[in-house]
């Protein structure tokens, strides 16, 4: 059913918290996502003309680079973006076939590829551009929060996180239950002022972004100690000062 | 938004077909539709061909057309599914109405019931088509209260000019159909002008600052796109139309789509058979062309909020 699930008491709300202060824009998360998902739930994520001049393909996570503000107070911010697994996901309710659905137990938004007719309406409904059309198979694909990793009993427990989170070299991506106020991700959001993207559209995204930290005012550069006293340098100093 | 030809053709052609069905049904309800086998045959063949052709065209943009039947299942939540259901439900009364009018040569009795249901189905289908766009918050220029009125007005106008033409061509010189076409053109022009004025003046819904949450630092602009090539998102939602072209095309839609059909409909009332038929034919073709231009603009002028991540400042 493409209606949103009724709220379940004690349900988890799994998602990501992305730290815009520590992301260095290395694209490792995007590459790890492509690598894992082209062999996993959504396999394959097809590419067209991948080694040619007009390469294009399905990616479920992309890193944008923005400049914000001017001069010294301005910032360069790398901005990874994937599905935000919204509480009020418009991509789910517009689906005419029931292929698009939101799981009641953990809030993950998924596409059942066997039901998808590739009408692309969900990609129009998503304000964030999180859905991609795979022209080779004629169906829509999206971030699954790596359900084939996070629930995978064959992986060691430490690896049961989305591929993008596991790959991030600066620990800018955090995965957890945002419904649990005591979870590490919820505490991060509370401490750092985590925010929603485009809250005015009312989709109530699960994923949160942490703002770049305010820069400390730069202190005056310390003056170098001047060599005083004896020895060759002292003699040279006296000679030049004289 | 990318103006895909299959969707433009589908919405304008099926709009015209449903408009024709609506007015035919209404005419049968009012008891003024002549019991003319030839007229009903041509009118219903045209309407059914436009509707069926439009529906087939809309399946062309599907990735998996063979699974299109699944679109009938989610009418509880999805306007696209409701559109498919309404379109399908309109066929039985339309076919019954055509059968009664052509084989039995009657437009009274149960044919009136079939005509009424056909008109209702046609109205519902056009409304559901419009609501697909009306409910998309991610495209602020579509998430607009006038969008259903625009779709209804264009369907009503293109249907009305065809009905006026067919009635006259089959020798039924009635005053009401051309007057109805003039009124439909006036209504369509009014609604579209109000819509264009409104979208030109409305405040932006979302900005690059709200999309990134970085507004506290100042103005936000794209430094590095995530990739050097194109992708599905840019292909589907990155279409831009130049401002000067917009103005010219709006003028073309207004003159060709609304003014010309109104004028030819009026003029047809004052002239003999052949000039009248030719004038009405000119009006019907012009209205169709105007509707295509209007629908192309409806897509090309609409901005999707996800383009804020690709360098747009506001949507």
Proportion of residues in helical segments of chain B? 55-70%
CATH architecture group name of chain B:
Up-down Bundle
The CATH homologous superfamily of chain B is called Formate dehydrogenase/DMSO reductase domain
* Total count of strands of chain A: 11
Summarize the structure in words:
The complex is a heterodimer of chains A (242) and B (315). Chain A has 242 residues and is an alpha+beta fold. Chain A has a single domain (14-210), classed as Alpha-Beta Plaits (2-Layer Sandwich), CATH 3.30.70.20. Chain A has seven helices and eleven strands. Chain A has helices at residues 28-37, 90-93, 121-125, 147-150, 163-167, 184-192, 231-241, and strands at 14-19, 47-48, 56-57, 61-68, 75-82, 100-102, 109-111, 132-134, 139-141, 173-177, 208-210. Chain B is built from ten helices and one strand. Chain B has helices spanning 5-30, 37-60, 79-102, 110-134, 147-169, 176-201, 208-212, 232-237, 243-268, 273-300; one strand at 220-224. The chains are: A alpha+beta (242), B mainly alpha (315). The interface between A and B is large, with 71 and 61 residues. Strand 4 (61-68) of chain A pairs antiparallel with strand 1 (220-224) of chain B.
